[in-house]
Design goal:
Shape: globular
Structural class: alpha/beta
Distance between the termini: 64 Å
Number of domains: 2
Order of helices and strands: EHEHEHEHEHEEHEHHHHHH
CATH architecture of the largest domain: 3-Layer(aba) Sandwich
Radius of gyration: 20 Å
Strand content: 5-15%
CATH superfamily of the largest domain: NAD(P)-binding Rossmann-like Domain
Oligomer: single chain
CATH topology of the largest domain: Rossmann fold
């Protein structure tokens, strides 16, 4: 018999999690601060929780997919008893936030898994989709089927609760840095007579499976249309900031991280937060080297 699932947060990723579970026959309850976002899922068979406490009380597995851990803690603050519940945190955050939330959940009788999603929303449930999760083995045993439904290529990393957050940074940073390097290169080529298409055709094959994303980014710049996105600039900026906090303060050199963060933050501050990564070219154009 399928477990009852409660999904907290219906942004692009949270909605994809809920939709995938519904498609696999799971009973799904959803909550979002703006309830209208739940309408497509309710039409697909989900149940709406008007309060987080109600959703947790009625379900066995809780998937949390909010903006950050602070929002998660605020939402969970009304829940004093989590006995028999397994909470899976899929919000990007730092290692100390993961440890603190695990303590908070276990003190209230619940089981806890911290996780990172290595996919865009459209990839949830696909064969190559992977969630990296860690926590006590009892938590993994109780939620393994749910995790593997969402990400068939998922990995359980044992009880090292900090592993997903650490690896999340190690995946997010090279990904966003590669894309920004391509945007920077296109910006450098502007006015030289070399077309964006020529450059994209040359660079995309070098990076294998990332080539498709590189071509899509270049195409977006060529059209000057930055509206199509599964992960907005604001989402990338927040994810990188939250993930890199695992290493602050500390002995790690984060100069390159800070440089990338400055570009993302500058583009978001310039009004491109809802657009895709290619929109950072506008920030580069508006901020010439002094």
């Amino acid at each position: 018999m399928s477990q009852n699932i409660f999904v907290m947060g219906l942004g692009n990723m949270g909605a994809a999690l809920a939709k995938t579970l519904l498609g696999k026959g799971y009973p799904v309850t959803v909550w979002n601060r703006t309830e209208s976002k739940a309408t497509p899922l309710l039409d697909a068979g989900a149940t709406l929780a008007h309060a987080i406490a109600d959703g947790i009380a009625a379900n066995e597995v809780i998937l949390v997919c909010l903006n950050n851990y602070e929002a998660s803690r605020r939402g969970l603050s009304s829940c004093s008893d989590l006995t028999g519940k397994t909470l899976i945190q899929l919000t990007t955050g730092s290692t100390h936030e993961a440890s603190n939330l695990q303590d908070w959940v276990t003190q209230r009788g619940g089981r806890y898994l911290d996780g990172a999603i290595l996919a865009y929303p459209s990839g949830i449930g696909s064969p190559g989709c992977a969630l990296l999760v860690a926590g006590h083995e009892a938590a993994w045993s109780s939620a393994q089927d749910v995790v593997l439904t969402l990400g068939p290529a998922s990995q359980y990393l044992g009880d090292n609760i900090t592993a997903p957050a650490t690896l999340d940074f190690a995946v997010i940073f090279p990904t966003v840095t590669l894309m920004l390097a391509v945007v920077q290169s296109i910006h450098a080529l502007e006015g030289t007579g070399v077309s964006i298409e020529t450059y994209a055709d040359m660079i995309a094959p070098i990076f294998g499976s990332a080539g498709h994303s590189i071509k899509a980014l270049a195409h977006s710049i060529a059209l000057n249309d930055f509206s199509q996105t599964e992960a907005s600039l604001a989402v990338w900026q927040a994810a990188l900031e939250n993930a890199s906090n695992s290493f602050r303060p500390g002995p790690k050199n984060l100069d390159l991280v800070d440089a990338v963060s400055q570009i993302l933050s500058g583009a978001v501050a310039g009004g491109a937060g809802s657009q895709n990564l290619a929109a950072t070219i506008q920030y580069m154009r508006d901020s010439p080297q002094k």
